[in-house]
């Protein structure tokens, strides 16, 4: 249990009111961490925090924040520190995909929004939490990216560009922060059955996507949560600058 014990750790997880982010928050709390639930919708965040606290009293708080607004992210970090005194683990999970279809049809606003929300907001958050991690010489930063960053697509090309950039953001930050004993890694999920990805797995293409997956099933949010717990704890203590692909084998062929 020691390898995956997060007792005494404080984790901030963006986009954690549902889907992958919620699963990560729930599993980290079960492994001993205090967790900060965050998304744009305060009611949804409070619902998740209440469910966690019902099982693990005092383990979670809810703080609403939009990743598109730097001031709200600063407030998120401040509230986390106010409640729990520090931040040991940052999980940048929230993302957006405002343009679906060929990149040739993408408007400037949609492209910029995707890059700002999926790349710049991650850098903002790291810049906010890194100083205290450097001071303590300890910390774990996890960016939830996508296997889309490894492949071309005529459907979600703009989104994939942003996710490929997250891989490089991770590598650069790992070089900068490694000497301070801070680990920075990406998780690249395949197609997971979440509301965010519903357009990709629901409908007539769903069976084909399962058929193209060696394990013959789509992902579950817990499949990603397990990787996050690994990276946050002692088990991932010598892993940094890496992208862990969790996709049922899709990219193996």
Q: Architecture, CATH level 2?
A: 3-Layer(aba) Sandwich
* Poorly predicted residue ranges: none
Instruction: Return Rg in Å.
Output: 17 Å
Largest sheet: 7 strands, parallel
Roughly how much helix do the residues carry, as a percent range?
40-55%
Mean pLDDT: 95
The total beta strand count reads: 7
Report how far apart the termini are. Answer: 34 Å
Molecular structure report:
This protein has one domain: Rossmann fold, CATH 3.40.50.720. 45% of the residues are buried. The protein starts with 9 loop residues before the first strand and ends in a 7-residue tail after the last strand. Strands 3-2-1-4-5-6-7 form a 7-stranded parallel β-sheet, sandwiched between helices. Helix 1 crosses helix 8, helix 3 packs parallel to helix 4 and helix 4 runs parallel beside helix 5. It has 253 residues and is α/β, with parallel strands linked by helices. The model has no long low-confidence stretch (mean pLDDT 95). It has 8 helices and 7 strands.
Provide a quick synopsis of the model:
The chain has 253 residues and is an alpha/beta fold.
Give the secondary structure arrangement, pairings included.
Layout: E1 10-14, H1 19-30, E2 34-38, H2 42-55, E3 60-62, H3 70-84, E4 89-92, H4 108-136, E5 139-144, H5 157-177, E6 182-189, H6 198-201, H7 206-211, H8 221-232, E7 243-246
Helix pairs in contact: 1-8, 3-4, 4-5
Write out key terms for the chains shown.
253 residues, 7 strands, single chain, 7-stranded parallel beta sheet, Rossmann fold, globular, 14% strand, alpha/beta
């Amino acid at each position: 249990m020691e390898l995956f014990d997060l007792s005494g750790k404080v984790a901030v997880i963006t986009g954690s009111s549902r889907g992958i982010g919620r699963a990560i928050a729930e599993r980290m709390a079960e492994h001993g961490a205090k967790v900060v639930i965050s998304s744009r919708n305060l009611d949804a965040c409070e619902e998740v925090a209440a469910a966690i606290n019902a099982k693990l009293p005092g383990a979670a708080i809810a703080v609403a924040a939009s990743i598109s607004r730097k001031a709200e992210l600063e407030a998120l970090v401040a509230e986390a520190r106010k409640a729990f005194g520090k931040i040991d683990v940052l999980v940048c999970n929230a993302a957006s995909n405002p343009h679906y279809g060929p990149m040739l049809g993408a408007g400037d606003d949609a492209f910029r929004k995707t890059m700002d929300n999926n790349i710049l907001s991650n850098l903002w958050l790291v810049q906010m939490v890194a100083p205290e991690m450097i001071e303590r010489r300890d910390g774990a930063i996890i960016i939830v990216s996508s296997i889309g960053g490894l492949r071309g697509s005529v459907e979600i090309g703009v989104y994939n560009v942003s996710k490929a950039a997250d891989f490089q953001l991770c590598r650069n930050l790992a070089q900068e922060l490694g000497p301070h004993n801070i680990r920075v890694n990406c998780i690249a999920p395949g197609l997971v059955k979440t509301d965010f990805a519903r357009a990709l797995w629901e409908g007539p293409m769903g069976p084909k996507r399962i058929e193209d997956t060696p394990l013959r099933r789509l992902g579950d949010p817990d499949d990603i949560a397990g990787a996050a717990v690994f990276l946050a704890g002692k088990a991932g203590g010598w892993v940094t600058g890496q992208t862990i692909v969790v996709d049922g084998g899709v990219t193996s062929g």
